[in-house]
Amino acid sequence: MAQEEVNKAITGEYNLGFEIDIEQDTVPPGLNDDVIKFISAKKDEPEWMLELRLKAYHKWLEMEEPDWGKLTYEKIDYNSISYFSAPKQAPESLDEVDPKILEAYEKLGIPLEEQKQLQGIAVDAVVDSVSVKTTYSEELKKHGVIFCSISDAIKDYPELVKKYMFSVVPMTDNYFAALNSAVFTDGTFVYIPKGVRCPMELSTYFRINALNTGQFERTLIVADEGSYVSYNEGCSAPTRDENQLHAAVVELVAMKDAEIKYSTIQNWYPGDEEGKGGIYNFVTKRGICEGDNSKISWTQVETGSSITWKYPSCVLKGDNSVGEFYSVAVTTLAQQADTGTKMIHLGKNTSSTIISKGISAMKGQNTYRGLVKIGAKAEGARNFSECDSLLIGSQCGAHTFPYLESKDSIGQVEHEATTTKISDEQLFYLRQRGINEEDAVSMIVHGFCKEVFSQLPMEYAVEARALLELTLEGSVG
Amino acid sequence: MSKVLEIKDLKAKIGNKDILKGLNLDLEEGKVHAIMGPNGAGKSTLSKAIVGHYDVEVTDGEIIYKGKNIVDEEPEERALDGIFLSFQNPVEIPGVNNAYFLRTAVNARRKHLGKPELNAAEFLRAMKADVAELGMKPELINRSLNEGFSGGEKKRNEILQMMMLEPDVVILDEIDSGLDIDALRAVSEGINKMKDGKRSFLVITHYSRILDYIEPDYIHVLKDGQIVHTGGSELVEQLEKEGYSSFEEK
Ligand SMILES: Nc1ncnc2c1ncn2[C@@H]1O[C@H](COP(=O)(O)OP(=O)(O)OP(=O)(O)O)[C@@H](O)[C@H]1O
Ligand SMILES: [Mg+2]
């Protein structure tokens, strides 16, 4: 990459004309300035956003793909990916949504309209890269809550976006975050004003739809002083043949006395028994507890993807701020997950809790990688970590890499780890009481995940249970 | 007298080792059968063969339960059909709530019998009554299944399950081992209460004390993989005096 180009990108001296026909719905595979300009134009973005994208792109070109994860996969050819595709037209109502999508929602116990709306959940479903539907926005507006696509936010709330986007995850934070910064096509923006308790659970469903399309979502949630929001993110993806890259970025900002609860159910297509065809999921999720007494909780149930690389983290900057990470990661078939969290204690009396439950079956490989870092000024910081692994069968694996960095060894850190195997004797005991083998396995698995599931919003927990059962179906015996 | 379980010329191995060597035994409906025999004779192996444990490979013979050979049936089918085994060493299952497990098991059985499932309240009421009757610590029902239970607590928990599941054939493998005096009485009373003239019991034990409480109809001596002698309760006294050496293998 020529330095000249980089300078141009940084100074915004770019020819805004480009080669690709804007009427097209998809760009040809490959990545270059023109593709980024196409995306930005498609999104009808202001120039400042395009400049940021180009800057990120040129930084990305200079970066290297990380290889420290305990993951084995074929090198990604970034030029074989198409970076933009949109469905033909955005449907007005659910009736217009692909019945197959609705069916998948149904299978996972998510009748979109009926259940979620009855439950008071606003739904912003994303099919491929364009928002399909936003509901309840009126009700939210009354409370001053902003809940919209990131594209709309860039146009309608530029000041908020400029202030907070890249403030938690800098565009050059890592290789995948830089790529996302250049090419993100949609995602969600949430702003909760001072003192407002968001009147409903916010929820977004993602789904990869078009063949050969990378999915680059970008989510930004800002909870102003004394506010509260619970946000649910869930995914399901259909069978496909080629490995598909997914590199999302999520940034959370919690001001003084604010609380953000972020729950994820991730069910991207895991690939077949050889790992063929699954989604590559490289995600950067980070929240900052900016103000005193703020709190951020990440809860994730990860059952999909062939490759998962994901470390939802908390920067505990405000005094007395709290960070939590509750995770269930399942790897079966030939899935590989390298996941965990980082808890960065900067403020005084900050505390963090890490509960990680890894389940491996068949040829699944599950790695927990966590960092607890206690800064020089973080007097009275406390962390509790518990990392448990459950093995089903003998071909799978579990690995745990806890890292601790503590300046002057201040703070109090506790770490517990266990690895257990579902024994034949346990299964037999349950079967002798009339419980069939599959129910017996799921009973043990649910018991193992209880602490994490109890952190999920009620109906989400029900979904997670169903998903876990579906995922582990046929992995025993 | 009708036979609920007929074991005919049963041969079984564990690994490469022949353990049961042509064993014959009939269980009569409504009767209490006790099995005594030296360590390693094959008592637990017999009970495992009856419930379809994966360790035991039946190589010959038949296990006829309610008129049907069950040798090839899945363990859960046998259980749902009413065969219950109280394990010599109940396994611990961390994370699985004891009450939740038992309700799942009870409702699986009820469903199998075409009875309505018990809701949480109905189940709790029934379970609490049995827990009280067994003198079991109520907190045990909210703990993980058998996890960290003392030996005696595990045995009481097995009896609780038996009472709730209402099986037709109850196999108790050394239910009396490791029980204190009060626990032995409570467990025995629990068993006696379950006698209803139809239900059959197979009680494996090394001690006469439990037999004093539950008054078996028959005593069988199991030695080297065979039943070598069958008699009434008078056999207990003889065994206590003379040991097993006087009972020759067939
Ligand atoms: N999993 C196993 N692998 C190898 N041998 C086994 C296994 N289980 C049992 N055995 C052997 O089978 C034989 C019968 O064992 P079993 O447990 O049936 O005896 P038992 O009559 O119940 O004895 P006890 O009175 O000590 O409980 C023993 O010699 C034992 O060592
Ligand atoms: Mg034994």
Report on the architecture of this protein:
The complex is a heterodimer of chains A (about 475) and B (about 250). Chain A is α/β, with parallel strands linked by helices and about 475 residues long. Chain A has one domain. The termini of chain A are far apart. In chain A, helix 1 (about 5-10) packs antiparallel against helix 3 (about 45-60) and helix 3 (about 45-60) runs antiparallel to helix 9 (about 175-185). Chain A is globular and about 65 Å long. Chain A contains twelve helices and 21 strands. The longest helix of chain A has 17 residues, at about 435-455. Chain B has one domain (about 5-245): 3-Layer(aba) Sandwich (Rossmann fold), CATH 3.40.50. Helix content of chain B is about 35%, strand content about 30%. Chain B has eight helices and twelve strands. Chain B has helices at about 45-50, 75-80, 100-110, 120-135, 150-165, 180-195, 210-215, 235-240, and strands spanning about 5-15, 15-30, 30-35, 55-65, 70, 85, 95, 145, 170-175, 200-205, 220-225, 225-230. In chain B, the strands form three sheets. A six-stranded mixed β-sheet of chain B has the order 6-9-10-3-11-12, sandwiched between helices. Chain B has a four-stranded antiparallel β-sheet with strand order 2-1-4-5. Chain B has a two-stranded antiparallel ribbon with strand order 7-8. Chain B is globular, with a radius of gyration of 18 Å. Chain B starts with a strand and ends in an 8-residue tail after the last helix. The mean pLDDT of chain B is about 95. The interface of A and B includes residues 429, 431, 435 and 450 of A. Adenosine-5'-triphosphate binds near residues 39 and 42 of chain B. Magnesium ion binds near residues 43 and 173 of chain B.
How is this fold's topology laid out?
The complex is a heterodimer of chains A (477) and B (250).
Chain A: H1 3-11, H2 33-42, H3 47-62, H4 99-107, H5 112-118, E1 122-127, E2 130-134, H6 137-142, E3 146-149, H7 150-156, H8 158-164, H9 175-183, E4 188-192, E5 202-207, E6 218-223, E7 228-235, E8 244-246, E9 249-254, E10 259-266, E11 279-289, E12 295-302, E13 307-310, E14 313-316, E15 322-331, E16 336-345, E17 351-361, E18 365-374, E19 382-392, E20 397-406, E21 412-421, H10 424-432, H11 437-453, H12 458-472
Parallel strand pairs in A: 1-5, 4-6, 5-7, 6-9, 7-10, 8-11, 9-11, 10-12, 11-13, 11-14, 12-15, 13-16, 14-16, 15-17, 16-18, 17-19, 18-20, 19-21
Antiparallel strand pairs in A: 1-2, 3-4
Helix pairs in contact in A: 1-3, 2-3, 3-9, 7-8
Chain B: E1 3-14, E2 17-28, E3 32-36, H1 43-51, E4 56-65, E5 68-69, H2 75-80, E6 83-86, E7 93-97, H3 98-112, H4 120-133, E8 144-145, H5 151-165, E9 169-173, H6 181-194, E10 200-204, H7 208-214, E11 218-223, E12 226-231, H8 234-242
Helix pairs in contact in B: 5-6
Bound molecules: adenosine-5'-triphosphate and magnesium ion.
